[in-house]
Amino acid sequence: MHDDGDHLVLHGDTWLCVLTGAGVSAESGIATFRDAGGLWEGHRAEQVASPEGFADDPELVWRFYGARRRQAGGCSPNRGHAALAAVEQRLGERFLLATQNVDGLHAVAGNRRLVELHGNLWRTRCSACDRPAFEDRSDHEGALPRCEPCAAVGRDALLRPDIVWFGEALDPADLARVTAFLDEGARHHLVFLAVGTSGVVYPAAGLVGEARARGADTWLVNAEAPENARRFGRFLAGKSGEILPRLFVFD
Ligand code: OAD
Predict the structure, then answer these.
(1) Ligand 1 binding pocket includes 226 (Cβ within 6 Å)
(2) Are residues 85 and 132 in the same domain?
(3) Does 2 qualify as catalytic in the annotation?
(4) Which residues constitute the domain of residue 70?
């Protein structure tokens, strides 16, 4: 047995891959996407989160991400984030956290074995050249930000948030890191835990299948049963900030 009731027992041979979504940051005051009052309620996602939307109306896109920067800037990690940082401390290389969140709160909480699948709200990059993304906390209210290296060679190029938008591919290196972890974990006791995600955006939503194919025990902690709940062996309904701090037991 690898679990007892509502406790996820972690043994010396357990490899734990955690996938988080917007629900983990809800108790920090950051809006989710698909809940009532969520970010996609007032916007068509493609308008503010696709390359086509950015080409059509970059002011609207920067207003959206500027507002998200202002909102997230005042938020701190919650008890759910802290619990995941603590479990990384215990497991070390036997832990990997893949997140769909762009708010950066897992890193603030202390997670280092972290893959930010959808980018980071606090980074900006050029929409034209491949200069590396850089840290940027401005909300760019007033004027659209432009790329200076591009301007230096006579090209007018807009900067954009370093977020993976709809229609864009995830960084293959990020997915490869998660897959390599699952491959290694499959040689041990592999556990896959998803937290606070509606499980509708791929490829992240497919990771539970990847884990199951490798024989993982699969757990889901979510406020309510999402469509894909039946793909998990165990489902615990509730808030991550309440469940995660008492979920893990070290054997
Ligand atoms: P969603 O908004 O789709 O789902 C959040 C899930 O968290 C829902 O199932 C809620 O029931 C649950 N939830 C809410 N509060 C919770 C809490 N306190 N504790 C536990 N669960 C809670 O967010 P994601 O699944 O993260 O992509 O969305 C995936 C992607 O879709 C996002 O990364 C974003 C979006 O389009 C991009 O912007 C590229």
Answers:
(1) yes
(2) no
(3) no
(4) 34-74+123-163
